[in-house]
Write a structure and sequence with these properties.
The chain has 16 helices and 6 strands. The chain is α+β, with helices and mostly antiparallel strands. It has 2 domains: 152 residues, no CATH class; 251 residues, no CATH class. The strands form 2 sheets. Strands 1, 2, 5 and 6 form a 4-stranded antiparallel sheet that branches. Strands 3-4 form a two-stranded antiparallel sheet. The radius of gyration is 38 Å and the shape is elongated. About 7% of the residues have low confidence.
């Protein structure tokens, strides 16, 4: 016979075991469900960033290949639909063994909302400038590496040999003495010719010490003749070949984009960013120099043939931009030539003697003003020849020397378009490099947006006439809502994933 006490003890153990088992099972299920939800959250975060990467994988290829810029062309795209399309595709999972259409990590996309879109023309084009500077840095490093590679593979001259210690030394046995003697003959002839040229120049200098009395009348007459017949006809042999293309600026970024208050103040010249006038601007000017064409290197497939001249002046007409840049170069050369004239004692004395002859107004300082006027006219005439040389694909040094200086004071009386320059054009800066100097003096904001103008015009001309660079996205913030199902319940929770992507 079973006692009551024994029955009570057995019942207590059964209840305790049932409660313990229930707690253990609940803990197991809770752990599984927590791991499941955490896995879905991690997967949703990965899907968000993967979807944004997929979206920005559609970057504008012509913009990258031609100008080294990473941007997504928003034109014709609905960003929310595109992100949702990639998110839906990435949420697909293979069929499970237990279920045909679901698995342990199955989830669905509920909603996609774009929080913020940043365009390359926003914030005074700062992102555009950053990408340009980064591109130039990598381009310079690449060019430096190529230079090192070429130097390492270059062959040694035959006159050098390697000694026992591995050092280079001259092999005198390999030198052809007959050729060396011939070179000495040529050198002696050159020296004789140079001495003759020096004697001729001395004679011309002695003649220039006596300036004509009608200098003032003749010089002003020829300068007036040049101005009346047009600057273009003087500088260019065939003015009819200068491009007269025009473009519509109404759709360009320099007109359509809105500046910040800081950008407006900088554009008007009220503020100046010193940090951007050094390295960043140097990189940017080098980018323009290496990327775009000019009068001597015109672009064929474009609305304007002279993009660098456009960036400097900003007119919608090619010939206006070209003439304006030539005027700037003339003024720049005028200043440089004045520096040389003031440093050359003989030429300064010639101007002083001419001022004594030409001065007819008896008041204090009149002779000094006349002398400065003569030097300015002299430097201007030389600057016109310098600019003409530049447009003929010659080089002109910043500060000229006696051998590169053409005009004597007496030559101003016969100065005309047919005057031949004595500058050989082998040393100094080219026309395009002078344009780069002009770029360095331009306002930063104008420089940035006119460059964007040129990029848009070129892409419209070559690829797509409807292209607008103000629609190019470089950064995107998005919220994607996911529906996360439970394993042991039909309920679902909503998880919001925030994603950010930008080109770097």
């Amino acid at each position: 016979m079973v006692t009551k006490k024994y029955i009570n003890q057995n019942g207590s153990i059964t209840i305790f075991l049932s409660i313990s088992l229930s707690i253990i099972i609940t803990l197991i299920f809770y752990t599984l469900e927590s791991c499941h939800i955490d896995s879905l959250v991690a997967r949703s975060e990965g899907i968000t960033y993967l979807s944004l990467d997929s979206l920005f994988g559609q970057y504008c290829l012509p913009l990258f290949e031609d100008y080294g810029l990473f941007c997504l062309n928003e034109q014709g795209l609905n960003l929310e639909n595109e992100v949702k399309k990639y998110a839906d595709y990435n949420t697909r999972t293979p069929a499970s063994i237990l279920h045909d259409t679901s698995s342990f990590l199955s989830l669905t996309v509920k909603d996609v909302k774009i929080k913020d879109v940043s365009y390359i023309t926003d914030d005074d084009a700062k992102e555009f400038v950053k990408q340009v500077c980064d591109y130039v840095k990598y381009m310079e490093l690449n060019a430096f590496a190529d230079t090192l590679k070429d130097n390492s593979n270059s062959a040694r001259p035959e006159v050098f040999t390697t000694n026992e210690k591995g050092a280079l030394e001259i092999d005198f046995n390999s030198i052809d003495m007959d050729k060396a003697n011939e070179l000495r003959k040529y050198d002696s002839k050159d020296n004789e010719s140079s001495q003759e040229e020096d004697s001729d120049s001395n004679n011309s200098d002695s003649n220039s010490n006596n300036p004509p009395e009608d200098f003032k009348e003749n010089a002003s007459k020829y300068i007036e003749h040049i101005i009346k017949n047009g600057l273009l006809s003087f500088l260019v042999d065939k003015p009819e070949n200068v491009s007269t293309l025009t473009t519509d600026k109404a759709v360009l970024p320099s007109v359509t984009c809105q500046l910040t208050e800081e950008g407006v103040a900088a554009n008007l010249g009220y503020t100046k960013d010193i940090a951007k006038t050094s390295s960043d601007k140097a990189y940017f000017c080098e980018y323009i120099y290496n990327t775009f064409g000019c009068y001597l290197e015109p672009e064929n497939q474009s609305y304007l043939k002279y993009p660098i001249e456009y960036i400097i002046h900003g007119s919608n007409e090619d010939d206006v931009n070209f003439i304006n840049c030539c005027s700037h170069i003339i003024n720049f050369r005028l200043a440089c030539n004045l520096v040389y004239l003031f440093s050359d004692k003989e030429k300064y004395n010639d101007a002083e003697k001419a001022a004594e002859v030409a001065n007819y107004i008896p008041f204090p300082g009149a002779e000094y003003l006349t002398r400065i006027t003569i030097l300015t006219i002299w430097a201007t005439a030389e600057a016109l020849l310098d600019t003409k040389d530049l447009l003929s694909n010659k080089k002109v040094p910043l500060i000229k020397e006696d051998k590169t200086w053409t005009l004597e004071l007496s030559d101003l009386t016969t100065f005309s378009k047919s005057t031949i320059s004595k500058n050989e054009g082998k040393s100094g800066l080219s026309y395009k490099r002078y344009l780069e100097l002009l770029l360095a003096t331009e306002n930063n904001i104008s420089l940035y947006y006119r460059t964007l103008d040129v990029i848009q015009m070129n892409i419209c001309s070559k690829y797509n006439d409807d292209f607008r660079i103000s629609n190019c996205v470089y950064s995107l913030d998005v919220d994607i809502s996911y529906s996360l199902p439970y394993i042991f319940s039909r309920k679902k929770i909503t998880y919001k994933s925030t994603g950010h992507h930008r080109y770097r």
